[in-house]
């Protein structure tokens, strides 16, 4: 995430699901903002062209720049609604949108100097248009209050400085009014941004509760399935193997496993599964599952044996049992991808192909348990 770091830190630490929801909301303003910027620029351009001798080439270049940047922002925000993308791609799109929208507002601010007309009526209309455009930056609050504030100030400040620079007291007064209005808009937007931050925090906590097993505090099956699909698509793009390990506790024939047993095993797994992209989850009442990207069949076999041996050697104990042993079914494969799989959310292969890997690991676990337990079996995957 480092190379995508920008001034939206509080936004980028949100869970991907919450982040995507915020971006889709921002994307819904794309067409409105495009037409607002384009029509406002056209109106202001005609007004200035009629009432002054401003260089026509400069005016045309400015108009084209506004239209192109507004269209680019619209195009960039429209890609927020494509939800089957990696976090890296999502961060890159946010960064691109922030850059384009900031340039757009800076170009509006430049009109306060490049297209300034020394006529009170034109200046009054120009000022009103700039205030309207500064308010159009408010949807950027969904990303970051500092960025929205910078964009609003970038629109207003050049015109305010230009007016304050003049000797005419009326223009100076108008400059003070404009500067004061900009400061008030920025300050007034802060409570709204704080409210949105609180809402995002509530969303994050709710999502964490939905994705966490209450007993072991590990990821639950819901989060595993979401993460599994993301890692499958990522591995298909990078052409790297993806492995699964399904762990079943052997001492379950005539008793219900106590919470202490689950917690003891969960703590061990959480301590040893810590690579980027790895995920350990409670799959159901009696099984745990480990997702391990970039892990080949030979590597997953060694990893499974390491887990089995260390759990047996550590003699994890709980109130119900003197010690725990586990059977492990594991499998690894090279995920395959297709154009349709990458583009269609409901493509059957997007579910069927990962299910083959999961089924192989589950069948391997069943075989290990049938062999008496406390052993590992590596399943074969045919894709």
Contiguous low-pLDDT stretches (5 residues minimum) are: 1-14, 339-349
**Basic shape:** elongated
What structural category arises from helix and sheet content? alpha+beta
Radius of gyration: 29 Å
Strand order of the largest sheet: 2-3-1-4-5
Q: Determine the oligomeric state from the structure.
A: single chain
User: What is the number of strand segments?
Assistant: 5
How many helices?
13
Keywords: Membrane, Transmembrane, Transmembrane helix
Transmembrane segments: 26-50, 57-77, 97-116, 123-142, 148-166, 173-193
EC number: 2.7.7.65
GO molecular function, one term: diguanylate cyclase activity
Topology:
Blueprint: H1 9-12, H2 16-27, H3 30-51, H4 56-78, H5 87-114, H6 120-135, H7 145-165, H8 169-210, H9 221-238, E1 242-249, H10 259-272, E2 279-284, E3 287-293, H11 297-314, E4 326-333, H12 339-343, H13 348-370, E5 376-378
Parallel strand pairs: 4-5
Antiparallel strand pairs: 1-3, 1-4, 2-3
Helix pairs in contact: 3-4, 3-6, 4-5, 5-6, 5-7, 6-7, 6-8, 7-8
């Amino acid at each position: 995430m480092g190379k995508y770091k920008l001034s939206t830190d509080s936004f980028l630490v949100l869970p991907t699901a919450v982040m995507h929801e915020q971006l889709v909301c921002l994307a819904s303003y794309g067409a409105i903002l495009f037409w607002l910027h384009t029509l406002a620029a056209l109106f202001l351009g005609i007004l200035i062209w009629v009432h002054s001798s401003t260089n026509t080439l400069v005016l045309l270049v400015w108009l084209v720049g506004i239209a192109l940047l507004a269209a680019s922002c619209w195009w960039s925000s429209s890609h927020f609604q494509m939800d089957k993308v990696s976090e890296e791609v999502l961060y890159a799109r946010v960064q691109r949108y922030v850059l384009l929208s900031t340039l757009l507002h800076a170009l509006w601010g430049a009109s306060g100097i490049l297209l300034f007309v020394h006529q009170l009526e034109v200046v009054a209309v120009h000022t009103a248009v700039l205030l309207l455009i500064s308010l159009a930056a408010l949807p950027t609050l969904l990303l970051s209050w500092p960025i929205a504030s910078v964009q609003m100030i970038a629109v207003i400040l050049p015109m305010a400085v230009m007016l304050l620079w003049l000797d005419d007291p009326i223009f100076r007064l108008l400059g003070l009014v404009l500067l004061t209005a900009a400061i008030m808009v920025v300050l007034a937007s802060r409570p709204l941004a704080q409210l949105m931050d609180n809402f995002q925090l509530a969303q994050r906590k709710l999502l964490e509760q939905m994705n966490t097993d209450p007993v072991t505090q590990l990821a639950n099956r819901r989060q595993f399935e979401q993460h599994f699909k993301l890692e499958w698509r990522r591995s298909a793009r990078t052409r790297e193997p993806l492995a699964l390990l399904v762990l079943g506790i052997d001492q379950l024939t005539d008793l219900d496993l106590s919470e202490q047993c689950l917690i003891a095993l969960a703590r061990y797994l959480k301590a040893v599964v810590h690579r980027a992209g790895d995920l350990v989850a409670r799959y159901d009442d009696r099984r745990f599952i480990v997702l391990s990207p970039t892990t080949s069949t030979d590597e997953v076999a060694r990893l499974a044996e390491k887990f089995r041996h260390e759990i047996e050697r550590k003699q994890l104990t709980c109130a119900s049992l003197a010690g725990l042993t586990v059977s492990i079914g594991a499998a690894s494969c090279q995920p395959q991808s297709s154009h349709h799989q990458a583009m269609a959310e409901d493509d059957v292969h997007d579910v069927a192909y990962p299910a083959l890997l999961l089924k192989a690991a589950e069948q391997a676990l069943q075989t290990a348990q049938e062999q008496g337990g406390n052993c590992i079996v590596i399943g074969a995957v045919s894709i």
